[in-house]
Amino acid sequence: MKLNQLIQTLLGSRQPAQVSRPEQELLSSLLVMAWVVEARDPYTGGHLWRVAQFCELLAQKAGFAAEEVARIALGGFVHDLGKVGIPDAVLRKAGPLSDEEYAVIKTHPDIGFRLLHAHPLAALVEDAVRLHHEMPDGRGYPLGLKAGEIPHLASIVGICDAFDAMTSTRPYRAGMPQAQALQIIGKNLGTQFDAHFGELFIQLGESGVLSPIIGHTDQGIPLRHCGMCGPTVILKRAHRAGDHVFCGNCGADYLLQQKTPGSPLELQATGATGNAKDLSPEADVELIERLAKHQFAEAL
User: Fold this and answer.
1) Which residue ranges form the domains of the chain, and what is each CATH number?
2) Is the pTM of this model over 0.85?
3) Helix/strand/coil for 78
4) Could you give the dihedral angle defined by the CA atoms of residues 125, 130, 135 and 138, in that order, rounded to the nearest 10 degrees?
């Protein structure tokens, strides 16, 4: 599926040649909106990319058409848009949330829905943004929908989001093993997770296709570990030996080194701390453009 076709889902049935460049750029603008949220929390580096990959695999496993697979993957990337409205004191808290703080977090689906409403591509992903925390037993939020009422897009994103949360490290706990996370999903089929899609996701995990995604920020690029904070150093595909990268949490400066040509880049602590310019968020433009032109534009 081409990007023009994805846009036509919302804009109508014009021929691809009639779709303007500005309209094509709408998709990239949507991805940038979502990326802003991830940039605020150093412990969620790569979360959007990973959820999008899980969503694509699950949608393909479920047998959806190429256009719908791309839409579901896109929904996985933008689902947490509403967290832009959550205070840093709650979003970046280095410990479990209190009941009051959890109530604040629970507002993010509706915040995202409102923020997204004015975007021309809102109709493609609004179910993912607003409804990914709904549950088949009706205990989810914000609407308390039950099985049969939850759109498949939201059900799929909800499973993939939860799996990534379980397998990712946070300041107060290490990420759990994949097998344990899959077991939790299995125990909650039909209650927290859609039974059909949840079973398919477990099958994906057992096949081994989820492993190369866990703990990564892009294909073949794992999160790197800060000596003080854990997996909070994000590398981009454009990084090369000799570049400096910084921990998103404590600001520690690391020099990228490569022992031999073609070997993985390694971090060497410099003992310094980045300045304000070093630590200011900078979107991974190459990744966003690649996703917009390929993964979210056609089935892989």
Assistant:
1) 3-218+283-295 (1.10.3210.10), 222-279 (2.20.28)
2) yes
3) helix
4) -140
